[in-house]
Amino acid sequence: MKGSWKDMLGIDHIVIAAKDPAQSAQLFGETYNCKIVKGGRHENWGTFNYLAYFRNDCYIEWLGIFNEEIADQSDNPLIKQLVVAFEENREGPIQYALRTEQMNPLIERLTKLDYSFAGPIAGEREKPDGTNLQWRMLFPESESVFPFIIEWGKQKNIPNDREYINNTTIQEIQDGLIDLEEFEKITDISVEGNNIPLRNGKLTITSNNKLDFTLQD
Predict the structure, then answer these.
(1) How far apart (Å, rounded) are the C-alpha atoms in residues 208 and 70?
(2) What CA–CA distance (Å, rounded) separates 164 from 52?
(3) C-alpha closest to that of 62 among 92, 89, 29, 104
(4) pLDDT in tens, 174-217
(5) Which pairing describes strands 58-65 and 10-17: parallel, antiparallel, or unpaired?
(6) For the chain, how big is the Rg over CA atoms in Å?
(7) How far is C-alpha 184 from the geometric centre of its chain's CA atoms?
(8) pTM for the full predicted model
């Protein structure tokens, strides 16, 4: 496969903590005229989701908990982050994933740097049509909230019916939680200014201490 893993980084999805994912997703869909689909259950983590797909090959995930005991015991950093958000009565964007098709070179890089990370953590869920979706995730450990890296298995998380792909894009992620120097160290990407180009959009580093995103027709 041509290109390094860092050259192929793209926006995969944004995670929104939602105590009632169906209701939160429906409200978003009505506000932004977006089609929403039911995702599935992550039995090993006690979580479930609703999704909105966009034409630039990324999506939004409204993530909730159906079994608090399982979620509380999970060692998945994303689930831990979700549990803390609910304990603090916070809902909204809490994390996002950057997609690569070459995770192993990143693992090798972080290992050579003696940089701590969790994973790769395998994930799977059954889609509404009964097919099995598989992926793995890598979580670089950071004092700031650092995005996790995701690599899909045989198929990416896209709907079987392309009618459910919205004709809008997640054009930009605005991240006020990340440390720019740490991003450069982990990814080996040199950043000029505050904008980081990705395959299907861009990442903008802000100073407002929150995570947000911009849709564009």
Answers:
(1) 33
(2) 8
(3) 92
(4) 998 888 888 888 887 777 778 888 889 999 988 888 999 999 88
(5) parallel
(6) 16
(7) 19
(8) 0.89
